[in-house]
Amino acid sequence: MHAMTHDHDLYTVEQVRALDRRAIDDLGISGFELMSRAATAAFACLCRQWPQARRLVVFCGPGNNGGDGYLVAALAHGAGLGVEVVELSDVRQGDAKSARETWIRSAGITHRWHQDGSLPHADVYVDALYGTGLNRAPDASASSLIDRINASGVPVMALDVPSGLNADTGHCPGSAIVAQLTVSFIAAKRGMYTGQAATKVGALVVDALGLPEILWQGMPTDAALLEAAHLPPRARDAHKGDSGHVLAIGGDQGTAGAIRLCSEAALRSGAGLVSVATRAENLFALNAARPELMPHAVHGPQELQSLLDRATVLAVGPGLGQTAWGHALWLTALDSNKPLVLDADGLNLLAREPRKFSAPTVLTPHPGEAARLLSTTTADIQKDRFTAARALAQRYSAVVVLKGSGSLIADSDGRLDVCIWGNPGMGSGGMGDLMTGVIAALMAQGCNAWQAARMGVGLHARAGDLAARGGERGLLASDLLEPLRTLVNGLAHG
C-alpha cells in the first residue's frame, strides 16, 4: 500500500481525473500501468482483510473500473484462488479492453449477467461495475445485479467507489453497492465522507499508487477532512472574565430542556459565564438542575437588552419557538450585531426574514432547516450537500455547519471541511442544542467563527463517539457533556 502524504485533502471526481491525466501526460505513466497498480493495491487489501478467502467473484462493468476488476481477477487467479468474473457486457475500449484480454488469457471463468440469473458462490465479491464513472441511477440490469449482490450476505470489496454512489456528493440516485471495504485510488474523493456514503463505503483505504508528490503540486483541493483540535491550556492566572460570557436565548413554554442543554454545553466547553434569557416558568428548573447557570426571565426586547450589553457571544434558537415572544427576542438579538450562533427556530425565523450578517456568525442547520433557508427541498439539499453548504454561507455571509452524517463546515470564501466522526446514536433530541452551546463557548474564548465551528463540530462528534462506547441506542445529548469537558482540554482522544 502506498501511503498518502496529503491524507486530509479531498478532491472532486474531475480533480482526480485531472491528476490521472497528469500522471499519464506529464509523468509518462501509462493508463494500463495505473490500472495495474490499482489492481495490485486492491488485491493486497483484499488479502489482508479476508486472509482465509479462497473463492472470489469479480463483477466488471464496461469502463476503466471494470478494467481494474479484470486485473484483480487475474492476480487472484495467478495466486491460486478460485475466481469467476461476471460482466455486464463484453464491450470494452482502451485500457479496459487490454485488462479484459489479460483476464481471458488467464483462462478464468467468465459469465454475462442476466437479470434472471444467479450469482456464483464466493467468499468475497469484488465490485468493479462503475466506480466514479456513474453520476445517475444504474440501469435496470445493473440495479438488479447490485440488489442481488447486496442481498447475498457475501462481503464486498468495492474498487475506487461503491457502484451507484456519487463520489462527488455522497448521494445515491438509485441502487448502490453496500461494501465492507472500499479501496480508492490516487486521492480521496469528497463524496465518500458525507451523506449516504456512510452506509455504502465500509472501511475506506485510499492508495496513492506510488505516484510522486510532484503530481499534486499546483492542484487545488476542494475540501479537507476535519482534524482533531482542542483549546490550549489556560494561563495560571486566568479568571472567568478571560473566558467570555455566552448569552443563550430560547426556551419557550415546554422547551426548557433545549436551552438548558445549550447553556450547559457552553459551560462544559469552557465559557467563563453563561446567562440564559428564557421564560419565567423555566427559572426554577434551570436553577435546580445547574446552579452555575444564570437564568433570567425575559418577557420582551427591553428586558433582553441589558443582558445583550454584557454578553460576548449569543447562542440563539434552542427552544425559542416562532411565536411573537420568540420572534421579538430573535430580532433584538440579531439587531445587536453581536457574534452569534444561530440554530433551530432561530434558523426557521431567518428563513422567513433573510438577512446577511456583518458580525461573526455561525449557522447550524440540519438538512430540513437548510432547505428552508435556501427555499428548496430536503431531498435537493441531500443530493449535493457540498453545494448547499457553500450556497448557505454565501447567501447569509456566515460560517455554516450543515449537520448530518459527515457534517460539513463551510464559509463564504468557499472553504469547506468534512467531519469524519459521529455515530447514528447522535440522531436524538437535543444534540443540535448541545452543538450550539459548544460553538458559542469557543467563540467566547477567542476563536473566530471559522475556528469555533470547525473545532466545535469536531469536539461534539468525538464526544458522541466516546459516549457511544456504551452503545448507540439510548444515547442522550447530556451523555456528551463529560466527554466534551475532557476533549476540549485535550485530555482524551476520540
DSSP strand tally: 18
Evaluate the radius of gyration. Answer: 26 Å
Low-confidence stretches: none
| Apparent shape | elongated
| Overall domain count | 2
User: What is the averaged pLDDT score?
Assistant: 95
What is the CATH class of the largest domain? Alpha Beta
Q: Specify the helix fraction band.
A: 25-40%
Name the CATH superfamily classification of the largest domain. Ribokinase
> Major sheet, described briefly?
11 strands, mixed
By CATH, the topology of the largest domain is UDP-N-acetylmuramoyl-L-alanine:D-glutamate ligase
Content of β-strand: 15-25%
Could you say what the CATH architecture of the largest domain is?
3-Layer(aba) Sandwich
Distance N to C terminus = 26 Å
Helix segment tally? 16
For the biggest β-sheet, the strand order reads 1-9-18-17-16-15-14-13-10-11-12
* SSE class: alpha/beta
Protein name: Bifunctional NAD(P)H-hydrate repair enzyme
Keywords: ATP-binding, Isomerase, Lyase, Metal-binding, Multifunctional enzyme, NAD, NADP, Nucleotide-binding, Potassium
EC number: 4.2.1.136, 5.1.99.6
Family: In the N-terminal section; belongs to the NnrE/AIBP family. In the C-terminal section; belongs to the NnrD/CARKD family.
